[in-house]
Specification:
By secondary structure, this protein is α/β, with parallel strands linked by helices. It folds into two domains: 10-258 and 307-379, Metal-dependent hydrolases (TIM Barrel); 260-304, no CATH class. Helices cover 47% and strands 10% of the residues. It contains 18 helices and nine strands. Strands 1, 2, 3, 4, 5 and 6 form a six-stranded parallel sheet that branches. Strand 7 (216-217), helix 10 (234-243) and strand 8 (246-249) form a beta-alpha-beta unit. It is globular, with a radius of gyration of 20 Å. The chain starts with 9 loop residues before the first helix and ends with a helix. GO terms for molecular function: metallodipeptidase activity. It comes from Adhaeribacter aerolatus. InterPro entries: Metal_Hydrolase, Pept_M19. This is Dipeptidase.
């Protein structure tokens, strides 16, 4: 594909965006909901996401991530996962004209037809199974349609990218466990998507060789452009294409731009007296950054990479393996620093504008925004 600049009229990109089925593979706003917020309310000053902004951004289908960290051990994690699903279902019950639970591709099309947000559930972290296949079945029956084998923590299924990168695991502990293989085989049987974001390289390769269905990588980017352990190396990208899977690009600045951390550290150093005072008061780094961003908005904006940097990752994948294997997995409400132009889910149309300016055709854009994922999802039900 040639990427030639073209003149784009505002109405053209918005029209193309509205005509496409837009699917986001990863959003963490359930975390905010567990803290008492309601996405039916206007949460503009508090989150990246709410129902009004999903509509404004032309988002047709959203994977809501069910997440907890390793602090939720046996007896806690599975129960907490179900509580998050309860909270999502409660929102759906209160807003039946705006959002519906979707468990099959044909239901997604029905949601689009009815102009409702298609809510799909993803489980981010195999530790929530608590080493029980029956728990996987129960989560599937409640609507979960993908499982991320690990979060940052390794578990009884597999080793994580963070742990493998830190070198904190002996070789015998790296990769997919026997239980992890059982889980993948069960997911293949159920028609549940295997998500390989967050997993270590050894786990990745063993999972690719175990699954009989196309995989997803719900929220990761290109290692060659941003060498972070959460990103994918070229041979992994090629393996996903050969598998028939899809990669959802993550909007997290640190996974997009290798210069981001240095700029952020300079920003913090410039305001080190205020940082020290906030640290003394018990504020976390994320809270400190949020406070400083509100106080110094122009400076904070320049710390973040431009949208073009994110689209460079997309171009790279397309040039490496083709346009059929890339999608979007924003990680909104699970990250603190997004590209400058992407401040909330309402800004998804700007991605379409950038794709058009880079010479992508309407067919390409339809694939990237949702078609590639829908193809993979449909493939789960095929023998």
């Amino acid at each position: 594909m040639l990427f030639l600049p073209v003149r784009v009229k505002g109405q053209d990109y918005r029209k193309w965006h509205e005509e496409a089925i837009v699917v986001d593979l990863h959003n963490d706003v359930l975390i905010a909901m567990m803290r008492g917020m309601d996405i039916a309310d206007d949460l503009s000053s508090r989150t990246h996401s709410d129902l009004r902004r999903f509509k404004a951004g032309g988002v047709d289908a959203q994977f809501f991530s069910v997440w907890c960290d390793q602090k939720y051990g046996p007896g806690k994690a599975f129960r907490y996962a179900n509580r998050q699903i309860d909270s999502l279902q409660a929102v759906i019950a209160r807003n039946p004209d705006k959002i519906m639970l979707v468990q099959r591709p044909e239901q997604l099309y029905e949601a689009v037809k009815q102009k409702k947000l298609a809510a799909i559930i993803g489980i981010e972290g195999g530790h929530m199974l608590e080493h029980k296949l029956a728990n996987l079945d129960q989560l599937y029956n409640r609507g979960a349609r993908y499982l991320t084998l690990t979060w940052n923590n390794s578990n009884t299924l597999a080793s994580s990218a963070r742990d493998e990168n830190r070198g904190s695991l002996p070789s015998a502990k790296k990769g997919l466990t026997e239980f992890g293989q059982q889980v993948i085989r069960r997911m293949n049987g159920l028609g549940m998507l295997v998500d390989l974001s967050h997993v270590g390289e050894k786990t990745f390769w063993e999972a690719i060789h175990t699954t009989t269905k196309p995989v997803i990588v719900s929220h990761s980017n290109v290692y060659r452009l941003a060498p972070h352990y959460r990103n994918l190396k070229d041979d992994q990208i090629k393996a996903i294409a050969q598998n028939g899977g899809v990669i959802g690009l993550n909007f997290n600045s640190v996974f997009i731009d290798p210069g981001f951390n240095a700029r952020q550290n300079s920003f913090l150093k410039k305001h080190q007296a205020e940082v020290a005072a906030l640290q003394k008061s018990g504020k976390s780094k994320a809270s400190i950054l949020a406070i400083l961003a509100r106080k110094y908005p122009q400076e904070a904006t320049l710390v973040r990479p431009p949208l073009s940097k994110l689209l460079d990752h997309l171009d790279y994948i397309v040039k490496l393996v083709g346009v059929d294997y890339v999608s979007l997995g924003s990680d909104f409400d699970g990250i603190t620093a997004t590209p400058r132009e992407l401040n909330s889910v309402a800004d998804f149309p700007l991605i379409t504008e950038e794709l058009l300016s880079r010479g992508y055709t309407q067919q390409d854009i339809n694939k990237i925004l949702g078609g590639n994922f829908i193809r993979v999802w449909k493939a789960q039900s095929k023998e």
